[in-house]
Design brief:
By secondary structure, the protein is of the alpha+beta class. Helix content is 57%, strand content 14%. Strands 1, 2, 3, 4, 5, 6 and 7 form a seven-stranded mixed beta sheet that branches. The chain is elongated and about 65 Å long.
Length: 235
């Protein structure tokens, strides 16, 4: 970057203390994992008080955040990448997030949500392009706007990813019997189960928490079945 003046955001990216970056990335990882689980539970009408952050979600969120910030760092600090980088990496980052969501769904998406996913893809790509354009300007207001755009994008992607997974998930644990129960989630050492109608693929939001060591759990036999995507009744 010799011979070129760095913007305030570029200086912050280069000179930020490692400890601050590590703490910020870890905090964003936990926050992203929380929002993803919140989006998942909101689809099934499960109260936010039962949101739970697990280690796998945090690690995945941190990896995605590190990758995103690394690409953003290269795009605003490496002179050769400033022209092509924003367009190339805006698409590449969004595609990578889509692949991560696809891996959780087995790359199976319902047709009803296909246009929603395309809209989200274009929106995220556009916001990333806006972020890169804002970082080029030597102005504190635009630099602050760039940080807000990137933060808002992370929040949107985290929440939407959990919601999309809930809307498109096809395989669930279902109990045997005339009145089947479906496991929609877990909370600590309990299964979150609800009444399930196999004919309409509808779940009644009357949830029970079945502890893994309880007598009720011993009487229930669960098997993995392709019953989704599930509909939520409005009762």
């Amino acid at each position: 970057m010799s011979g070129e003046k760095m913007t305030s955001l570029q200086k912050m990216a280069v000179l930020a203390p490692e400890g601050m970056l590590l703490a910020g990335i870890t905090g964003l990882g936990y926050f992203s994992a929380y929002l993803s689980d919140l989006g998942y539970k909101s689809h099934f009408h499960i109260p936010s008080m039962f949101v739970e952050i697990n280690l796998n979600s945090v690690v995945l969120s941190v990896c995605v955040i590190i990758f995103t910030l690394f690409i953003a760092f290269l795009s605003i600090t490496v002179p050769r990448l400033r022209r092509v980088g924003p367009y190339l990496f805006s698409f590449f980052i969004t595609a990578s997030v889509a692949v991560v969501i696809g891996m959780k769904l087995g790359f199976s998406l319902s047709r009803t949500n296909l246009f929603t996913l395309i809209f989200y893809f274009l929106l995220c790509t556009g916001l990333l392009l806006l972020f890169f354009q804002l970082t080029k300007k030597e102005n504190r207001i635009t630099n602050l706007a760039a940080v807000m755009v990137l933060s808002g994008l992370m929040i949107f992607v985290s929440y939407s990813s959990g919601s999309l997974i809930a809307q498109n998930q096809k395989f669930f644990l279902v109990s045997d019997g005339k009145s089947p129960l479906v496991v929609v989630d877990t909370y600590k050492d309990s299964l979150v189960v609800a009444p399930f109608d196999p004919k309409t693929k509808t779940v009644a939001p009357r949830y029970q928490f079945v502890h893994l060591e309880s007598d009720l759990n011993a009487k229930l036999n669960f098997s993995m079945k392709k019953v989704g995507p599930l509909n939520i009744s409005t009762e």
